[in-house]
């Protein structure tokens, strides 16, 4: 299934969506000169999830709110806010509130199903 991108949605450049996301270890190594802040790492075999004190991406300049690897940024950063699956909560706060409610309901449903599986059957 092809993802439809809505190019009419224009980023305001606030940087609020630039959070700590996992990166391939090679990606971090290749872009280490662009890292803007100190961070802790959560490791897996292939990925590193940088954890910064403020929760923002390690490549985001805190004062200008600009990405230091913009031309080489990860795919999620390229499509965030331009596809319905990942709406921008700055540009579309009502859509995000609705999606948050849907996610919460889905999580509740999943938790209830798990609970019911653990209950002894009469």
Spatial order of the strands in the main sheet?
A: 1-3-2
The number of distinct structural domains comes to 2
Helix content: 25-40%
**Overall geometry:** globular
Largest sheet: number of strands, sense, barrel closure: 3 strands, antiparallel
Query: How many DSSP-defined strands?
Result: 3
Task: Please write out the topology.
Elements: E1 23-24, H1 25-30, E2 40-43, E3 47-51, H2 75-79, H3 93-118
Antiparallel strand pairs: 1-3, 2-3
Could you characterize the architecture of this molecule?
- This protein is of the alpha+beta class.
- The chain is 30% helix and 9% strand.
- The protein has two domains: 17-80, no CATH class; 88-122.
- It has helices spanning 25-30, 75-79, 93-118; strands at 23-24, 40-43, 47-51.
- It has a three-stranded antiparallel sheet.
- The radius of gyration is 18 Å and the shape is globular.
């Amino acid at each position: 299934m092809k993802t439809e991108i809505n190019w009419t949605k224009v980023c305001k450049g606030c940087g609020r969506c630039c959070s700590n996301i996992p990166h391939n270890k090679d990606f971090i190594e290749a872009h280490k000169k662009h890292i803007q802040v100190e961070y802790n790492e959560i490791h897996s075999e292939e990925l590193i999830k940088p954890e910064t004190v403020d929760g923002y991406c390690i490549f985001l300049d805190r004062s200008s709110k600009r990405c230091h690897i913009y031309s080489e940024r990860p795919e999620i950063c390229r499509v965030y806010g331009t596809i319905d699956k990942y709406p921008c909560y700055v540009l579309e706060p009502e859509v995000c509130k609705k999606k948050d409610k849907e996610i919460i309901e889905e999580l509740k449903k999943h938790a209830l199903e798990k609970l019911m599986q653990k209950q002894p059957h009469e």
